[in-house]
Amino acid sequence: MKKLFTVDDLLVCLCSAVGYGLGYNLPMTFGCSVLISLLICLVAGALFDYAANALIKKQIFQKTPALKFLLGTVFLAVYLVGDSVSVRIAGRSLFSSYLEELFYVVGIPVLGFVFSLIANQYKKKKIRERYGTGEAGFVSDKDTVSYFQDMNGVNREITDKYDEALSVRTKTGVYVGAKEKNVLRFLGIPYADAPRFLAPVPRESSGRVYEAKFNGPSPIQPINERNVIGYHRQDENCLTLDITVPAKKKKSSSPKSVIVSPMISDFNCGGIVSPVLDGRNLVKESGDIVYVAVNHRIGPFGFLDLSALPDGDRYPDAPNLGLLDIICALRWIRENIEAFGGDPHNITVPGTGSGGLASVVLSRNPEFRSLFSKAFILSDYTGMLCTRKDLQNEAEALRKHLNVQTASEIAAADVSSIRDFSADPNNFIGGICSGVYPVPEDLFAAPPDAKDGKLSVVLCSAKSQTGEWILWDGLENSVRYGFSGLSDALRKTNPPAGALLDRLDSMEKKVDLIENVLFHGRTLKLAESFLESGDKVYVFCSDTTPEVAMFGSNSVETACSFLGNTNTAEELGVLIDKSSSQILQTMLCNFVRTSDPSIDYNDVKNTDPIPWPLFDGTDGSVMTATDSGIRAGTGTFVADTKKAEALQE
């Protein structure tokens, strides 16, 4: 965890105190006014502070305690001699001078720390007032709705002059973005067209100029108070990218590392306008990362098997269109990201929810492993894979809902009629389909030609994945629909665990079994399959105490923490320690740059090195975030999962 005051801070304070003392006392001695003396004092203190920080951060002092002690002794001697000389010249009391400097260099940071504690308590109070026990789930307000409605602008073609400094030329067009504080954003860039129930069609080459100031439309999805993303404009032709790059150019001419994030969704609701996966904070903090968010089709428009219906063979790709969209986007990015300063050979694919499962699928298919070099799975959802039969049943239910006979008639149906079907919680809405291209039949069996050891992978799991269902849907709907779906998924993927589930006598025990087998157990199984492929694997578990107990420590918290979106988390009833988020952000950035997420000296101010070991199947190799800090080997993720699995026997 980040510390309030470290040895490094003390050494820097001693040095800066000399600057403040000399900067104030000497001008006063020569007859300068108090105002002038204060200005010189501030400048001198800042210069001494900068010099001390630059010196203390050198690796030789960080890694050698004896040299740091020697440096501290020198700083202390300089402070005592310098302060004594300046005070005597000014004719002031040495004791009173020490007290003043102690207040400025130590007292003010302490006061700031106390203020942050008070502010934190106020935030907790507001969350409790808004969410109570959490039974109602996410509580939207007018500001939330207007947030999405305000993004409903439409990009236009530009036929006259434009700001070339804000433009980027790609193979499919010239896009003119907008500057926001420390980042440049290029929004709503189309990468393909989306004919209904057919594979995406890549955009043709073009030299035309377009605005890129507004988000593209979200995928077709239900509109209700639970799904506030539904208030953003929707369109079937939703295949667009949002690209965020640093506004300030670093001296290095090396291309920047790239993050490509599929949108967050539950396969029925979602989009890149969701603030959960907003990449602006990460890009601003890193200064050398390009962040790309990808929209794709969801619901019946993205995952539907029409093959069992008359003339259904006309739509062979319908079961996994959303996944084919992401593949198409990755190919566009490989061809064009250099224009945005990105490195096409250093791409990391993260993901949470449906995006996490998509990233896993692509990581397990040798045909697509060449499109990226690293994967950072914020939640994998492998327990939610569908079968062809699932999606065929969905197609049959949709056919009856529309009162038609053939697949072609469904393809010709009105958008709103299909959306009404997906809005009914009693209707099954599928997701990524196992065994249909490009998904292998067994996601956990590494094909021989995938054993190339090419990828570096981080797999994340939260202690309470089911808490996310309550957050989005509320307790009543989660029990009625979400828990039922999770129970069916457990019975389908693990029959012994499903039989045990039916014998358990309490909801708490059933939820624990689902957590440990359907989510945590499959994450561990996935880690083992990556190891079999020779890949580098790291595992992370979030086990913090939530402000709203019913939400648990869920994957939304994990995503917001790694991306630095702490304000978004607060809106969702999750209070994240900002210093912990800064550590996790740095871990993500380090992984994206070097394939190693460990924290080294000086990576995060006031934070000691945090080595993140490669996963070896034990809790000692699992990086765990708890209320007391972020360290490997402090949790029981593996032990709890194996204990639950043993109950099945």
Q: How would you describe the overall organization of this protein?
A:
The chain has a domain at 7-126. The strands form three sheets. An eleven-stranded mixed sheet has the order 4-5-9-11-10-12-13-14-15-16-17, with helices on both faces. The protein has a four-stranded mixed sheet with strand order 1-8-3-2, with no helix packed on it. It has a two-stranded antiparallel ribbon with strand order 6-7. It is globular. The model has no long low-confidence stretch (mean pLDDT 87). The longest helix has 38 residues, at 94-131. By secondary structure, it is of the alpha/beta class. A hairpin with a 2-residue loop joins strand 4 (178-180) and strand 5. Helix content is 45%, strand content 13%.
Shape: globular
Task: Name the quaternary structure.
Answer: single chain
Mean pLDDT: 87
* Rg value: 28 Å
Residues in β-strands, percent:
5-15%
Helix percentage: 40-55%
Structural class designation: alpha/beta
Count of helical stretches: 19
Q: Tell me the number of strands.
A: 17
Residue windows where pLDDT falls under 50 for at least 5 positions: none
* Side-by-side strand order of the widest sheet: 4-5-9-11-10-12-13-14-15-16-17
Characterize the largest beta sheet: strand count, sense, and whether it forms a barrel: 11 strands, mixed
State the distance separating the first and last CA atoms: 40 Å
